[in-house]
Amino acid sequence: MENAKDKRILEAEMDTSEDFTKKGILLSVQNLKVHFELRKMGFGRVGYVHAVDGVNFDVHNGEAIGIVGESGCGKSSLMKTILTLYKPTEGKVIFDGMDLANLTTEQVRKYHSEVGYIQQDPYGAMAPFMNVERILAEPMVINGINSVEERTKRIKKTMEEVKVFPVEDFLPKFPHQLSGGQQQRIVIARSMLLEPRFLVADEPVSMLDASVRVEVLKLLRSLQEKRHLAVIYITHDLSTVRYFSHRIFVMYAGQIVEKAKVNDLLKSPAHPYTVALLAATSDPDGNNAKVFKELPPGEPPNLVNPPTGCRFHERCPKRIDGLCDVEIPPEFEVGSMHTAQCWLYKK
Amino acid sequence: MANTPLLKLEDLLLHFRTTKGIVQAVDKVNFELAHNEAVVVVGESGCGKSSLAKAILRLLPKNVASYSGKAFLNGTDTMAMDDETYRTKVRWNQMSMVPQGAMNSLNPVLTIGDQVTEPYILHTGASKADAEKQAKEVFQKVGVPTSFFNRYAFELSGGMRQRTIIAMALITMPDLIILDEPTSALDVLTQANIFNVLKRLKKELEISYILITHDIATSSELADKVAVMYAGQIVEVNDAVKFFIEPLHPYSRMLMDSVPRLRGVKEPDFIVGQPPSLLNPPTGCRFAERCPKRYGDCANEPPTFLHNGHQVKCWLYK
Question: Which of A102, A133, B159, B254 could form a disulfide with A171 if both were Cys (CB 3.0 to 4.6 A apart)?
């Protein structure tokens, strides 16, 4: 039995046959815009950074979503808005039926206890002067779990779950005494302590070494499956997404340009940007060195003055002049649960 | 000339002195690099790959405990040279380097044109006008618009800054460029673009590279040869095409298995345990503790065996 379960986790891709839409929507992001003001020498406004510009999606209970995009595409701003660290300029974020913009302080605290957050840099995410026991106790202290026995019990259980053995040896250690992989496990344990329903992971493995990276990804995946967590996994690395998400959203210049199930996206990418991103990602192969890659020219646009029309049109090999550079494309359906923000798919 | 390797390292050793003891960062490294060839040095963080680059280019910090071995560049042992000869004859004339994170170390108050011409003026004694002409030529080669010549670093995107750094390493037309994690801070598309530039330079200018990286998937974009480093030692040197299909050393195999792939159905696996501390590395094979194939011999340090002409430091190939 144990073996069969292990085997399922070892399958190369996640099982995406499950229909999550029946499980109900946990998080809904509706026409979300997050703009940051640019000031000149502290006086006057000179413009806005359109970090997130019109994003719509739903996350169902127990569903893992991967958001892929290059740096500066707004994926971190999107995540921080979901965590209520930023306020939306326009649009709504609705969690379990509550609009996050209208929560009282008490409700925000409750919301935070239901959302786990895994940071990119595990060392930077832990207070250097606290030992592992304090670091793990802190969220419970804040959320009113006052019994010391209860706290110790939970800490031990969670540490075993993230496979930091033997627990007693690690409790008095400080973050700098742990290896990178162990640090990230402690951060994961901390995010799991309050038994959240929803987890946000911001590049959880990008700071880790290749051999440890897969280990942490597998740990996250087993936690996700065991606890039926809804997850948003943010990354720039397409090759890890496929091991840890049911659906992938591709983000470019503040907008989500394509949404699809993992296999659909990898096998038949629709948006020209997704196609380029897939082409640019290498697999280890000795013959790579002999060929040049076909890549779109240029770099992502400045989000202070984003281009009119489709944000990708300046670099797009399939641009339709007079349309792509004028009007922002709406979401077109490409297949089942597969949409692309691209005029090529106009019906 | 054509038969002498461009670079040949023999027992290159670099140990550092720290308050806790001697760190054996680079421990008797041997390998050869032919003209117009690219070798990729892969390994996990802390395995000594950046120290190897420093040892080759003699960019040493103050706490060196021992530095020995031989490094033949075009047949001449550079380790026998004194520092001044090395500086004027070798560094930047025959070998240059793109250090890790260099794109973020450009001087913010000088234009990139000034910074790129500086090594050319210093190392060849050219006039400012000549240097400017040369710099603009190199800019074109790496894909920086020549109109950027008088811009400052903050006006450039990450990809352009990295190209500028490559231009700086290239301006004296060295035979060999050592690249230390040249694209680790860049986005996927920019990364692929930089690799296209490096490939083109290799083809057009017949440059050789030593690429130091932990990113095995992207390293395959440039590799003719792969050298795997573990705990301060080179455990395998193999031909790239063969290596990416069937690595020899057990560590290389497990490392390759841990790479997540975009295509194909192979499930990545991880290596249990951690690399040993370089303060007191184990006396036998340094990988033995984590190796699934260890046996009696592994308690002694394996020599480097030749297996079908490829170096591998493992008793299995006795």
Answer: A133
Considering only CB atoms, A210 lies closest to which of B44, B200, B243, namely: B44
Q: Are residues B112 and B250 both part of a single domain?
A: no
For the full predicted model, state whether its pTM sits above 0.90: no
First to last CA, chain A: 49
Phi/psi of residue A233, each to 5°?
Answer: -110, 115
Contact A286 B187 (CB under 8 A): no
Other beta carbons within 10 angstroms of residue A210's beta carbon come to 24
pLDDT tens by residue, A203-236: 888 888 777 888 888 899 999 999 999 999 998 8
Contacts of A25 (CB under 8 A, 6+ apart): A58, A59, A60, A61
Note whether ipTM > 0.95 here: no
CA–CA min distance B241, chain A (Å): 4
In a domain, B318, yes or no: no
What pairs with residue A232 in β-bridges? A65, A200
Does residue B235 form part of some domain? yes
CATH code: domain of residue B221? 3.40.50.300
pLDDT digits 0-9 by tens, A128-184:
999 999 999 999 998 888 899 999 999 999 999 998 878 888 999 999 988 888 999
Say which of A70, A181, A285 has its CB closest to residue B220: A285
Q: Do B189 and A276 touch (CB under 8 A)?
A: yes
